[in-house]
């Protein structure tokens, strides 16, 4: 019986390893010579104030959480650079309250992103118009507070998708 438990455990471990499963912080698809990364604030090409801050901060946090890299602030000393720009922002009411105010909004953000290996000046990953859409409810008439809270939550979800896309897109 003990042998079967050990064998089952080894089979599960082997399947996870063969499927490319990695623990958080090990991002095995990054070039091995890259140890530091700089992620400056993204440019904002929209009229929505501060949207780039939410996206940039979330990507930094997610990258640190899921990779072995050290975040540095000086792009000239970084082994890698992640640059981006927010190119589209739209918040559209989906449902309305009895007073005619939007109480459920669909928000869409699109970014252009580039991951550069500074050691050889090569582009490791690049994608334009990466898009993320989600819906958020407003419980009160505070639209600006709603947008900040929604952008913070949305930035975290979008950052996770961005990191997944980068790792699957690196060749």
What's the topology here?
Blueprint: H1 2-18, E1 36-38, E2 43-44, H2 51-66, E3 70-71, E4 80-96, E5 102-117, E6 122-137, H3 143-169
Parallel strand pairs: 1-3, 1-4, 2-4
Antiparallel strand pairs: 4-5, 5-6
Overview of the molecule:
With 171 residues, the chain is α/β, with parallel strands linked by helices. Helices cover 35% and strands 33% of the residues. It has one domain (25-169): ABC-type transport auxiliary lipoprotein component (Rossmann fold, 3-Layer(aba) Sandwich). It is built from 3 helices and 6 strands, in the order H-E-E-H-E-E-E-E-H. Strand 4 and strand 5 form a beta hairpin. Helix 2 crosses helix 3. The termini are far apart.
Key structural traits:
171 residues; alpha/beta; Rossmann fold; 6-stranded mixed sheet; 3 helices; elongated
Helical run tally: 3
Residues in helix, %: 25-40%
CATH class term: Alpha Beta
CATH topology: Rossmann fold
Net shape? elongated
How many strands appear in the DSSP assignment? 6
Q: Classify the secondary structure makeup into a structural class.
A: alpha/beta
Quote the average pLDDT.
81
Kindly, what is the distance between the CA atoms of the first and last residues, rounded to a whole number of angstroms? 44 Å
H-E string: HEEHEEEEH
Radius of gyration computed on alpha carbons? 20 Å
Largest sheet: 6 strands, mixed
The multimeric state of the shown protein is: single chain
pLDDT below 50 for ≥5 consecutive residues: which ranges? 3-28
The CATH homologous superfamily is termed ABC-type transport auxiliary lipoprotein component
Q: What is the strand content?
A: 25-35%
